[in-house]
Each structure stands twice: as structure tokens, then as C-alpha cells.
Amino acid sequence: xxxxxxxxxxxxxxxxxxxxxxxxxxxxxxxxxxxxxxxxxxxxxxxxxxxxxxxxxxxxxxxxxxxxxxxxxxxxxxxxxxxxxxxxxxxxxxxxxxxxxxxxxxxxxxxxxxxxxxxxxxxxxxxxxxxxxxxxxxxxxxxxxxxxxxxxxxxxxxxxxxxxxxxxxxxxxxxxxxxxxxxxxxxxxxxxxxxxxxxxxxxxxxxxxxxxxxxxxxxxxxxxxxxxxxxxxxxxxxxxxxxxxxxxxxxxxxxxxxxxxxxxxxxxxxxxxxxxxxxxxxxxxxxxxxxxxxxxxxxxxxxxxxxxxxxxxxxxxxxxxxxxxxxxxxxxxxxxxxxxxxxxxxxxxxxxxxxxxxxxxxxxxxxxxxxxxxxxxxxxxxxxxxxxxxxxxxxxxxxxxxxxxxxxxxxxxxxxxxxxxxxxxxxxxxxxxxxxxxxxxxxxxxxxxxxxxxxxxxxxxxxxxxxxxxxxxxxxxxxxxxxxxxxxxxxxxxxxxxxxxxxxxxxxxxxxxxxxxxxxxxxxxxxxxxxxxxxxxxxxxxxxxxxxxxxxxxxxxxxxxxxxxxxxxxxxxxxxxxxxxxxxxxxxxxxxxxxxxxxxxxxxxxxxxxxxxxxxxxxxxxxxxxxxxxxxxxxxxxxxxxxxxxxxxxxxxxxxxxxxxxxxxxxxxxxxxxxxxxxxxxxxxxxxxxxxxxxxxxxxxxxxxxxxxxxxxxxxx
Length: 717
What we know:
- By secondary structure, the chain is an alpha/beta fold.
- 45% of the residues lie in helices and 19% in strands.
- The chain is built from 25 helices and 25 strands.
- The strands form five sheets. Strands 10-11-13-12-14-15-16-17 form an eight-stranded mixed sheet, with helices on both faces.
- Helix 4 runs antiparallel to helix 5, helix 7 runs antiparallel to helix 8 (205-217) and helix 22 (580-600) packs antiparallel against helix 23.
- The longest helix has 28 residues, at 155-182.
- The radius of gyration is 27 Å and the shape is globular.
- The protein starts with 13 loop residues before the first strand and ends with a strand.
């Protein structure tokens, strides 16, 4: 194995080591030794991981006191920050509500050096420069091996540690790939790296495949076959899934004595190759993504159902589709969690809409896209619309193709089948999974009788998910209803639909075009639901025209948000019983707990309202769980809290929020009894599939709000 190249450490003023025990040198001085307490050191560690990003002051409570904040956390935090500022001079700690640690430049950070080395390895591998790729990956691993901030506790450290582990896994993957490509003496190192991948990430099939290839390359075919059997049993017993198609194909080649394919990217047509697959991280979930093109605008494609990006590269029509987009845009492709090359999930733990919005944000972060145009097809259009409403600051434009507002039709939405027909369709898919070719009559009728496309369609779906997962995805879609939120979309939006679409009829596209404020609706000729089939040039003409000419997005001040009101029940009586001094102390503890819970669930405090709080969230499930956590945390203090939530469009003005959604949330909260968390139907519909359970509270006449409102009480979060 090639000896790892020592990573050069240039002359710098500030040197940061986040791998292993925390280390910070400023002008040759050990700055960590000057930090007086463990709490201050935890805070220093957290601020150093923020790089150049600001840290919200409210989030620091969890960092400094992971076991629970003291009686007066604000005062104690001020003391810690003062000591930290003194100890770190000449570094500066700037800001009050948003804090940023500024180190004397130039600054050397081991994790950032490792990230650059991995990026260099990735680029070298794209050019088949396997020697430099191996060297850089080994150098990155040398830095990362000690582990992230050993000994550091707290939820934030665990999150950072998982991201750090993802870097290690990518370095190992490039070591294995490069060693396989170089062959000879490097095969032993490739095998060790692949074994490490399998032991550290058992459900990531890439590691198993690389280990099988490395073993076969050294003549150990029997063990390679055993690796496959172990993977097959693991996936079946834990996830009810089968290995990915390419792993199965490798297994078949080894069984009949054929050599494994070379570990390089597949050339799918002259001048265009499938880009390297990378991984973004959202919590414990790894999300596979690819980037191609270098245009000025990032364009994220969100496909429908379980169609995986790797299989689509086998279709020449798809290659033409993305190749044309890549001439004008920086195109980001990805596999949704539970599908394709992303981490598999159990069929009873499929992601909610909120989790999938978080997945999009994670992929954008990993791809280095602060803002992107989001183009969604089919179910992907539903997800893209919701993301655009909730995160306008990250969405430059929306392209919604073949989308809908509500999966199962009702009296107010006739464009989709009713529940009985939908369940029948899902059952047909389950029975026909071995051969999905006949279903092209719905998805792509132009190619219904093309044997090559029929065979590819079945193979692609099989690579995307297991039969149980694919049907579970369909059944989960039955709960999707975004009718109550599309009015909150103010991002420039293009709605496209083919007039003869058989699976999602054109009435759905017309409804979206009419319901999204300011949306442009274009009806295209054709019957094919898959956007790259049929007349793709007509579709891409519209996409390019719209995105290239779309007006810049203004600073968002109208967003889709979940509004949470909480207040203390019988506060006046309790204040009279306790007296002013004790009541003030109790209120200080109440406020500290609420702020700590808001930080934990990524909520944003808008303002206090006497004995309550007004907060907003970008996801309803987090808001509900935050409300429940606040309620439960108050019981030991002898306080009873009630809460109300609604999701809708709000105006953000100087950190305050206004609008009818705020008024509705306040009225919903007013219906709650002590200890209750009450939500509107909109909130309930948006958390479908999250495992959160409700009790029906019937319809209510909310004061000052038109119509009757169906409300639900939280039963279990």
C-alpha cells in the first residue's frame, strides 16, 4: 500500500484541531489551556465547528448544559462568554444574539483540510487519475482517524460526529476505489478500506460491493460470495429489502466465473459520463447525490416515487435530458431516502414530508448550493412546492411538472381517484412488481410496446426499492394534501403538464397553476408522465426560458410556517399564590426551558406574550414535538401549559410575524384545555406518516375567522 502523504501544516496564526481532543493554538500559544472551565471549553468547541457561521445564542444552552439549564441560564452564559473572550485574545467573539468566533488569520483547521483533500481525490478519480486520488484520500483519512472531538458530550457533538464519520467513510471509499483501479500492491489496501466500510456502515451497499470486488481481484471468490450472502440476510431481516441490482449482478458474475467490472464511471454516451456519487447527511441518514454542469444557477431535480438516479443513466433519452440541462445549469440529482443509493429505511419508517424537506436542504448544503431552482416531477413536484413555500430563501424558482394538490380525491378535489380506486391501484402494483412493463401504459404510453423501455422500466424500479418499500411509498402518498399551503408560494413558479397524462390527469396541473399565486401555467402536448420521455425538447424549452429569464427572488418576507402559541393556564392565580418575587423566579425558569426546547427543535422565538410564547417553525412535526416537550417540562415546576398550532402563510417583519395564519393559531390555542396541544387540520395533514397521533375534536367556530375549522388534540408524539 502506498504510504500516506503527511498533510503539510503551513505557517499560520491560528491552528485548530477538531479531530481527537480539542486543540487551538493562537500565535503558538495553547488557547484551550487558558479556557477556565469545562463548560467554556464545550462552548469553544461548538463555536469552532461553526466555521464562519453565526451561532444563535439560544442554541448555546444545550451546548453548555446538555443535562438541563440552570435557574438563570442567561446570567450564567454571560459570565462564561466574558471569560471566554478574555482567554481567547487576540481572537474576538462578536455579536450578542448571534455569536461568531473570529480567529487571527491565516487559520488552519484539520477538518477543512481533510474536506479539501477528499474533494481533490474525488476530482482526480473523475479524471481516472487514481494515484493522486489514492494519495489525497489517504491524507484525509490520516487527519480524520482520531475521531471528532473525543470526549465531547452533547447532542450537537453527536450530530457533528456523524457528519465527521461520513467524511471518513468517503475517504475510505476513495481509497478502496483507487486501490482497485491501480491493482497490484494496492489491492490489499483496497480490501482493508472496504472491510472498514462494511464494519462501520453495514447498510451501505457500496462497501459490500467494493469488498466483493477487492476479494475477487485477489482470487478469494468464495469469501466475496459470503459477503453477498451476509448482506442479503441483513437487508432481508432488518429492512425487508434485497440488495441493489448492481450488487446482485456482481454476485451473478462471480457465481459463473466472470470478472468484476472495473471501478470507474460508466460512460453512457460520448461526451457525457455518470458523475461521481457523493453523500449528504441528514442526521443518521446518508443521501446519495450527483452534480453535473457548471452553470451559474443550481438546479435540483426531484423525481417521483422510487425511481433511482443510477438506473436513469442507462436510458439514452434521460442522458440527453440532463446533458441539455447541464449546458445551462449546475444540475443536482439525488435519491430520496429509502430509494436507490441512499440509505434504506424500514417500510414502517418512511419519511414524512417534513423530513424530506430537511433531506432537500441537506443535499443543497452538501452540494454547496445556498439557493437553487427546484424542479419536481410527479410526487417530486408536491415536495418541491412544499419546500418552496417553507424555504423561499433557498428557492430561486420552482418548476412543477405532473404534480397535484391532493393524492386522494374528495368532494372538493375531483382530479384524483377516490380512496378505493387508489388502494386498488396500489394492490395492482404489488401483484405486478415482477414485471412492471404493462404499467408504462400509464407512465409513458408512447413507449408502452417498446421492449427495451419496458425491460428498463422494470429494472429501474427494482433498483429503486424492494416490492414492500415501493408499495409502502404509494400508500404513504395517499395522505399527501398540500391544498392548504400552495397559496403561500411566492417564489417564481412554472407549472407544466402534458394534456394527455394518464396517471396524473391534466386537471391537476391546471389546479396548481390556478392556485399558486403568480404561477405561469404551460400545457404541453403529449401523454407521457415521465418528463424526459416524449417531446423532451418542448418541455426543456419552457424550463430554460423560464429559469434563465425568471426574475430574481426578493428577500423573503412571506413564508410558509407553523405557528405555535403556548401559555400558562391559571397564571394569575398562581402569581397571587406565590407572590411577586417567587413568581418572577418561576417565570425566568419557564422562559429558559421554553427557549432551550425551541433551540432543540429548531424553532424561532418571535416574542413573549405575558406568560406565553409565540414561535414559528419551518416544519409542523418539530413544532408539535416542541409543544409537547414544553408542556411536559413545565409539570415539575407545578405549571400547566396549553398550546395551539396552525400552518399557513405569515408575513415576517423585523422578526415579528403577522397574517391570518397567526390569528388562526391564536384561536386554535384558545380552544385548548390545560395540558392540551391542539392543531388545525392543515397541521394534521402535513404530518401524515410521522407517527404522531391525534384525537378528533370536531369542528369549531374560531372567533374572527371565516368558516368552521376541524381541530385535533395531540394524543401521542
